[in-house]
Design a protein that fits this description.
The protein is an alpha/beta fold. It contains 15 helices and twelve strands. It binds pyridoxal-5'-phosphate (PLP).
Length: 411
């Protein structure tokens, strides 16, 4: 019997067997785990027996969430982290070494771009490319290229990466392909389908969905041959090569760097994730309707949303993704004040978060892309009036009414 995604999410804990017939894995708060026999303790330390030793490397509640994320992504294993950035930092810092070359999308989440500057300062070479064209990635690859990193749909302009093309290229060249799937979630898209080796998700966003918990995850899809990866340290070349990469990410990224997800946070993410499919269906439906409506309104110059036929990668998004996502952005005509527009919204919240049940709006150039300055914004195609929306699950009519009032207020 093959069960659907929501059924498997809902029943993952009790199928595995939880004491007292509980339907949820309990929230484990213990930091230490004791063993009857000292030999067992040693065997767990040496990786010869599974078990928990100290809370910084995870606990039974985060392990239950890791099984669910692996199931969602169709992966072979997952390591969870305290935040999405914790997960990305763990991937880059535990798998790259001085002298390595990384090719990354030019359209990345701002804090990831900032982290890449840190990686460069530690002696890695980073080349930023237009990831909507796999040819640009191919041209950037050199003899020391270890990894290609991209997101699925870029924030805020919604460029869709050439995921299939880059995946083929990396498979041919034996290069590790890492995809940040936060914007699509494994409900809309599984990067394993395009041969990504590792998938990163910020669990803070749509997977938990309620804006009440931080978390991140790294999933191994089983597609990458770790025996060919030169940076795996001797202690982690243990057992089948399929497990080496994630073992190093767990040991270096969690044990040594310490951005560990707590049991309480893992529990909250797990309960949020139960409704992932329902929430995404509703949010994506709202987003497509609103984007279509907004693009027909006077005063709105451009709407960037992969679900619109005018979007440059619309056909690609249609082919790869179940739906077009909940993120969009748009520009107002010059004579309208984006601040007055935003202040006229009564339902939509002015906030920097995304992937929340509530619809959120933010003036991009003045907030999340302020630090980089006007010149870099222009190079990235970020208009000064660009407004980013993360669409929630409100009743659609209320959203459209809210935007209609705000547009009228600035006419
Ligand atoms: C938010 C976000 C992150 C970082 O996640 P946090 O949980 O906030 O640390 C990484 N990548 C993308 C695409 C994001 O939107």
């Amino acid at each position: 019997m093959t069960l659907g995604l929501t059924t498997r999410l809902l029943h993952a804990d009790h199928f595995k067997g939880v004491e007292h017939g509980a339907t949820h894995e309990p929230t484990h708060t213990a930091v230490a785990f004791g063993y009857e026999s000292a030999r067992d303790l040693a065997a767990v330390f040496q990786g010869d027996r599974s078990g928990h030793v100290y809370g910084r490397q995870g606990n039974p509640t985060s392990a239950a969430l890791e099984r669910k994320v692996s199931m969602l992504e169709g992966g072979t294993g997952t390591v969870t982290f305290a935040t999405g950035m914790g997960a990305i930092a763990a991937v880059l810092l535990s798998l790259l070494r001085r002298g390595d070359h990384l090719v990354a999308s030019r359209f990345l989440f701002g804090n990831t771009s900032s982290l890449l500057q840190t990686i460069e300062s530690l002696g890695c070479e980073v080349t930023l490319v237009d990831a909507t064209e796999s040819g640009a990635v191919a041209a950037a690859i050199g003899p020391h290229t270890r990894m290609v990193f991209t997101e699925t749909v870029a924030n805020p302009r919604t460029q869709v990466a050439d995921l299939a093309g880059i995946g083929r290229l990396c498979a041919e060249r034996g290069i590790l392909f890492v995809v940040d799937n936060t914007m699509t979630t494994p409900y809309l898209f599984q990067p394993a389908a395009v041969d990504a080796g590792l998938v990163v998700n910020s669990l803070t966003k749509s997977i938990s969905g309620h804006g009440n918990v931080l978390g991140g995850a790294v999933t191994d899809t089983g597609r990458f041959d770790w025996s060919r990866y030169p940076n795996i340290l001797p202690p982690y070349r243990k057992g089948p090569a399929a497990g080496w990469g994630l073992l190093q990410v767990r040991k270096k990224g969690l044990r040594d760097m310490g951005a560990t997800l707590s049991g309480e946070a893992a529990h909250r993410i797990s309960t949020g994730a139960e409704t992932l499919a329902l929430r995404m269906d509703r949010a994506c439906d709202n987003a497509l309707r609103l984007a279509t409506w907004l693009s027909a309104q006077p005063g709105v110059v451009q709407v960037h949303y992969p679900g619109l036929e005018a979007h440059p990668q619309h056909a690609r998004a249609r082919e790869l993704f179940r739906q077009f996502g909940a993120l969009m952005s748009f520009e107002l005509e010059d004579r309208r004040d984006p601040f007055a527009f935003l202040d006229a919204l009564k339902v939509v919240i002015k906030s920097s978060h995304l992937g929340d049940n509530r619809t959120l709006a933010i003036p991009v150039a003045h907030t999340i892309f302020f630090e980089m300055g006007r010149e870099r914004r222009e190079a990235m195609g970020i208009a000064e009036s660009l407004i980013r929306l993360s669409i929630g699950i409100e009743d659609y009519a209320d959203l459209q009414d809210d935007f209609a009032v705000a547009l009228a207020a600035t006419a």
